[in-house]
Amino acid sequence: MANHHNIDCLVDTNPMAEKIQTVGNKVEHTTMAVVAMKTAVIEAEAAGAKHVCQNVNRGFFTLMQSQLSAKLAQKKSRTEALLTQLYMQKCRLLEIKNSMETDYRRISARYGRIINSINKQLEQRIIDLDQPVYKFCANDIASCTNRKLAVSGIAPIVQKENLQTAQNINSSILRRDGEYAINHLKDFLMEFAKSDHEVRCHTIENLSANDSKLYLPFVMMSTTVDSEGTQSLFVTPPVGLSVTNAQRSVIEISSHVKTEGWSPKEPLCSETEKEFLRMLVESELPEREKKMMKKLFEQKMQSKN
């Protein structure tokens, strides 16, 4: 039969508790170190990412700046070239404008002298045609009136018994003066009919089919349109005609022509085209300007047709 013995043991847990406490402290310190390291790693990664983004932004900005600078330099050089070309074209246009103004003044002066000469010739011809009337009014009518007044003053101072004789004398004198005036009027009418016949023979309606040279007064008109589309009318009137009257007459004639309408005949268009092409070939203009003038002329002729 077994004997049971009671063994009393005394177990001290303080060292183990101390060790566990020490281990717990170390684990806690390790956890704090891991958390601190994780935080530092995150901060380092954020700083690195920020640095990388800054570098990428700086590189992109530098690239865009260099590309924009290159394009700006290219556009600037192109703009300077165009400005130089425009300046040369401006100088050329100013030269053409000055040349056209000089030609216009010269042509205006020449046609002004021609029109003035034509006006003087027409005025002299009108005076020559009306000269018989002037002579008749100045000489015949005045002398006849004076004679009538002189004779009519005799009747009141004659004696009563000679009144019938004086009246017969006055009647005969008046009859003679009347016949004289009638003869002069007849001569004047015959001269006027002769002059009228000569004028009608030299008018356009009664001209023969042969070539003739005619002189007609005219008013030269030109229009210009500025950059805003405003149309200006310039009229060079002949001597003795005001600019206002000339403009009014030209505008009335122009409106009448637009209302009535006019189209040139085919032979006239053909002759005009041949003459224009001949002048264009003989001119010393550059080939490009000739082609442009020919193109504009053909477009104008087609629009009229």
TrEMBL record:
Highest taxon of source: Bacteria
Protein's recorded name: Uncharacterized protein
